[in-house]
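Running log. JK asked me to keep both predictions on one page so they can be read side by side. First protein, sequence followed by its tokens:
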Amino acid sequence: MLILICGIGHLMASLILKTSESGSINRIAGYRTKRSMKNETLWKLGQSYAAKLLVFAGVMHIVIGGIVLLFFRYDNELYLFVELLWVIVSLVTIYGLTEWNLKQKDEEMINKKDR
């Protein structure tokens, strides 16, 4: 059940990122890290990349959550911890991939300036 609910939350978060992508850097909504707020290019890249990953993860969570609800009974506390671990791992992966992508783009922009 937790995976299913988090999948819906991921899809809603991706919509927020998509709407904040078109605007300028803000401190209220969006993928806000030190690197993503460094300049407009990184801001827009961070918003769009994280939104794509969140859509993928959200759909995957909804499918997996639906399968779990159909075929498994929640009679053990272990299911909750497995679901929680799954959601945490997916969010950490999304954060890591987005930051890695931003770092690559930032280094690329620095190398262009140095030439």
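And the second, directly underneath as requested:
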Amino acid sequence: MQLTVPTALTLMRIALIPVFGLCFLLPPPWTNLLTVAVFALAAITDWLDGYLARRLGQSSDFGAFLDPVADKLMVAVALVALVTVYPHLWMAVPAAVIIGREIAVSALREWMAEIGKRATVAVSQLGKFKTAAQMAAILMLLYREPIGPIPLPEMGMLLLWLAALLTLYSAYVYMRAALRVLDV
């Protein structure tokens, strides 16, 4: 297997996960800015690897497998870390919904691929909007402080709930599509 630029970016995103964890555990004042920077870099590589794979014609089966795994790992680690900063139901519920949905939909996609129906549960525009809301929310919550009059943590929490609601809806859409194909 030849290592392509998009796959290298995805592997870099996976390598950033322990770096993110270490930065998150650093004492203030560096924690906020460093974790935001590492997570932002990971989010940018998420967009960039897909763009480059299409633009350069470097899509691969391995990259298609690895990319969503890298995304889900980074998001899950960030959400679990955020629950330690915001230890209440308002954070735990959307974190659990998002992580649970990612596991369930990944399993559904794998199962549908096994029976040759992977396209039935392909990523939709709704999923991309959900991901954007989720990434923005996580960045705001990681920063942990307002910027001037802008209440970043509160805005992040609202966006995270929006992402969780979109997550539930997209899970419903995927399940409905899969059930239709399976004639259950």
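Observation for JK regarding the second prediction: The mean pLDDT is 90.
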